[in-house]
Design goal:
By secondary structure, this protein is α+β, with helices and mostly antiparallel strands. It folds into 3 domains: about 15-145, eRF1 domain 1 (Translation, Eukaryotic Peptide Chain Release Factor Subunit 1, Chain A); about 150-280, eRF1 domain 2 (Nucleotidyltransferase, domain 5), CATH 3.30.420.60; about 285-415, 60s Ribosomal Protein L30, Chain: A (2-Layer Sandwich). Helices cover about 35% and strands about 25% of the residues. The strands form 4 sheets. Strands 7-6-5-8-9 form a 5-stranded mixed β-sheet, with helices on both faces. A hairpin with a 2-residue loop joins strand 6 and strand 7. Helix 2 (about 50-65) runs antiparallel to helix 3. The chain is globular, with a radius of gyration of 28 Å. Residues about 1-15 have low confidence and may be disordered.
Length: about 425
């Protein structure tokens, strides 16, 4: 049996699968480097004529003759020739455009290898044509495209401290915090109760203004991109802050709700997102949390959850997996082995591991490596063939991190109990 089972019908990858594939390829090309400015990157928007791109490459090819270093000159002209040859197969750029990487990359021992890769239909449209030549491929624009959509401002506060941060797609980012000089409720000796109360109110007022300024510095520059702002803290602090309109006027209308949280440090930002799950029902991170909560619920019941490569693979083959959970940070390969007795064995290993053979798990004889593929690509193909739904789970929250580090990055919610 081939590792890549054939699907009965062609089915396009979902947005999440498409992003995963792009992310994996970007990570590979980020590692490449070349001697001198010999690695060529070209970003082509969807509305750019291929003939115009070819004309630009022809011009760059002519100008490359002026490069002083013979090796760099040769490598750049070879890269441009390779790109031009590939573009002959395109009548027009695909949807969202395309990105081309080409050049002689260092492979160690003073050796280089020519690579040319075309990234078709990136997750977001390429805004403009760009030609770049450097010692590394230009991957930052692709990285930016892979940022999850959905952007929420997070603010947690009490009278002692405050923190602001972002919820961007599935990622919670703590940005900045501040602490107050508000005195405690117990007044110091020698001060009248009335005077102490007045000084305390002034300190609270000043701290609220400081929090508002902090929030404005972070959120106002992005006010047109914001999907909303969540405010958390104990009562009455958050209520006072909002009701007395300390928050910048352009941000007040963005507030989606206020929520009770126990912490006002960085941990409070995570607690705030948990408390606001109803409001954030369409946010990507909430969908991940719901999927993981269901997995843990089935795991504790003990009959409709599976995890680890071997168990997940067997249950997928049986058609028992209703939902496949894959950590976005899994970077593993699947090896397929075959022994002389006809047995087939499968093993998941780190992508960096160089392994060519092993022992058959059934008879113990030497095996021969027959195939090596990315584990996500392999499992997704099995899942699509059997109608299994797929979730790519972020590691930017506690349960998602557990999926990667405690369960090997692979889990499944079963349609029925299989005992595997």
């Amino acid at each position: 049996m081939s590792l890549m089972a054939e699907s009965p019908s062609e089915s396009s990858w979902s947005d999440e699968k498409h992003k995963y594939e792009f992310k994996r390829l970007v990570e590979d090309y980020e590692k490449y480097s070349g001697s001198g400015t010999q690695l060529v990157t070209i970003y082509i928007p969807e509305d750019k004529h291929i003939s115009d791109v070819v004309a630009h490459i022809t011009q760059e090819h002519s100008q490359a003759a002026n490069i002083k270093s013979k090796d760099t000159r040769t490598n750049v002209t070879d890269a441009l020739a390779s790109i031009r040859a590939r573009l002959r197969y395109y009548k027009r750029p695909p949807a969202n455009g395309m990105v081309i990487f080409s050049g002689a990359v260092d492979v160690g021992g003073g050796q280089t290898d020519m690579v040319t890769q075309i990234f078709e239909s990136p997750p977001r449209p390429i805004p403009s044509f760009r030609y770049h030549c450097d010692s590394n491929f230009l991957t930052d624009p692709l990285r930016d495209m892979l940022q999850d959509e959905g952007m929420y401002g997070l603010l947690v506060l009490d009278r002692r401290e405050a923190h602001v941060g972002w919820l961007k797609g599935k990622r919670i980012e703590a940005i900045k915090g501040t602490t107050s000089r508000v005195p405690g409720k117990q007044r110091k000796g020698g001060q009248s109760a009335q005077r102490f109360h007045r000084l305390r109110l002034e300190a609270i007022d000043q701290f609220y203004k400081e929090i508002a300024e902090l929030a404005a510095d972070v959120f106002v520059p992005h006010r047109y991109e914001l999907d909303g702002i969540l405010v958390g803290g104990p009562s009455p602090t958050k209520d006072e802050f909002l009701e007395r309109k300390y928050l910048h006027h352009e941000l007040r209308e963005k507030v989606l709700g206020k929520f009770d949280v126990s912490y006002t440090n960085e941990s409070g930002l995570y607690e705030l997102v948990d408390s606001a799950m109803d409001v954030l029902s369409d946010a990507a991170i909430v969908k991940d949390k719901i999927a993981m909560e269901r997995f843990f619920k089935e795991l504790h019941r003990g009959n409709r959850a599976t995890y680890g490569f071997d168990a997940v693979r067997e249950n997928l083959i049986m058609g028992a997996v209703a939902r496949l959970l894959i950590s976005e940070d899994v970077r593993k390969d699947v090896l397929s082995f075959k022994c002389k007795n006809g047995h087939e064995c499968y093993e998941m290993i780190d992508r960096r591991t160089k392994k060519t053979n092993g022992e058959c798990s059934e008879c113990g004889t030497k095996t021969e490596l027959t195939e090596r593929v990315d584990v996500v690509e392999y499992l997704v193909k099995l899942a699509e063939y059997r109608g299994t739904e797929i979730d790519f789970v972020s590691t930017d929250f506690e349960e998602g991190d557990q999926l990667l580090n405690a369960f090997g990055g692979l889990a499944g919610i079963l349609r029925f109990s299989t005992g595997i």
